[in-house]
Amino acid sequence: MGGVDKVQVVIAHEERATLRVGDTFLKVDGDQGRLDVEVEVMRLAPVPTPEVLWRRPRVLALAAVKGKALGRTGQPSEASPTAWAAAGAAVRRLHDAPMPPWTGPGPEQYAAELDHECGWLVTNGILPADLVDQNRRAAEKALRPWTPVFVHGDLHASHVFVAGDEVTGVIDWSEGAQGDALRDLASLTLAHPEHLGNVLAGYGGDVDVEVIWAWWSLRSLLAARWLVEHGFDPDSPGCELDVLRAVGTRSTPDLTRRRGR
């Protein structure tokens, strides 16, 4: 039938699903509160976000943003270093903005989850115990007190869209809250560590790169079981298990050795 847009399943699991029909994205969520938070966080964020087209109980319709994703896991990024720096500058604007009222997990909650997730990885033979222990030791550096800021909370490179060297939109705000600035920077560069220097150049200020590395380990340790149980493969190239295996190979480039928040 001519002129009829296909329905594309972007993501689907037992908690939520996202469909695309033409230039409209439909987010269906079992938790209405999560959709309400997402809309409010987008309203507060000082960066480009998708236009809300309409809302119904447990369904949110959003307009597609212009441009292409900054990067995709397992694929080299086609975005320029300047675009990555622009993403870093956008993250800085977000982190400097007045915070939303919602508080994300703190160090104590992450530490409690870490016990369970590390045990699961070893018990199920996902990774050798010594590698899990090495990453757990690395991750503990992220479990320090931090000054909360306005965070996206799930800032994958695939959630940042650029056209040329400009950020045109940031999507998927359901985890927006008060949280650790360095978690956002770590999530953005998790699958693209070669662009960490570009992101930090745009972000500015003093940043403790070793805490970003710690978040790479912490985030990967905490995410692996959820990904497996929801039908995703954390062992795909560039994904969480690759990140965990690389823990012993990290070095500190002079241009990204920065201390601070």
From TrEMBL:
- Organism encoding this protein: Paractinoplanes pyxinae
Kindly provide the name given to this protein in its UniProt entry: Phosphotransferase
Under InterPro entries, the record lists:
Aminoglycoside_PTrfase, Kinase-like_dom_sf
Provide an example Pfam family for this protein.
APH
Q: Which Gene3D superfamilies match?
A: 3.90.1200.10
Q: Which residues form the Aminoglycoside phosphotransferase domain?
A: 46-203
